[in-house]
Amino acid sequence: MTRTIEVTSNPNLAPVFAKAVATSRLKSGKALPVLDVVRRDIQVDPSHLAAYNQVSGFPLRNEVPSTYLHNLSFPLQVTLFADRSYPYPLTGSVHLSNRITQHRPVLLGEPVTITVSTANARPHRRGAMVDVLGEARVGEELVWEGVSTYLYRGQKAPGEVEEPAEESDAVDGTGSIWRLSGDLGRRFAGVSGDVNPIHMNPFAAKALGFPTTIAHGAWSMARMLAALENRLPSAYTYEVSFRKPVLIPSTVRFVARQDASSGDWELALRNNKKGTEHARGRITAGSGG
């Protein structure tokens, strides 16, 4: 049977993170739990949404960005990671990619129920990968789905390691130049609840091998989508994978190319000077993919 954790309000993530780190040493690598974390009938706070939109680049409007629904699901993910039945430690985990499907826009004022679960633990050449599944419903209507894929370095999962598929180069060329301030990590932490110190404290970042603080992957995902927000259909699937961390402060270049026949978008976020690929994305019309 599925066990359910009910979250009745937006949790303060600092103690939940602390619990997840504290339970890391108790993790056993056993099978994924049959566990849902649910928060029902969420009323989006217009002032919080406005703050999120400002940091992420979305305009103020009556529709809730699809990445904001991911933002609402993130505390539920951390709550799941902190549960003792979850077999992989938060310490050393890496957020690899996201896939978001918007079946239709959620309007400000609509109560949303979000559910998070996990599936598909599988081996990776550097550890184990797990998909964290999210869905959002207005009443009984499924309006949004998300898949966040995490790598747990040095961990094990059943099965054979699949060889990575060959990839073409991400799009490149001229694009929008974004100058990222040194306080970006703190500002996005304020609207996302993701208080991982590698985004806010340069000493913590250096202790984990980064020369300085790094931007949240969820910020990169949101900012790239916001740049195209007024050109997207009402239903779409957005896939993004994270390559090299975005150091802050820095200057990045956003490149987007639309296929004339299909209407699909190919996206890339690059270091403006070196051309280093930080993230790549793809947006396809419709919600059946």
UniProtKB/TrEMBL annotation:
MaoC-like domain boundaries: 186-257
Family: Belongs to the enoyl-CoA hydratase/isomerase family.
PANTHER family reported in the protein's UniProt record: 3-HYDROXYACYL-THIOESTER DEHYDRATASE HTDX-RELATED (PTHR43841), 3-HYDROXYACYL-THIOESTER DEHYDRATASE X (PTHR43841:SF1)
Protein name in UniProt: MaoC-like domain-containing protein
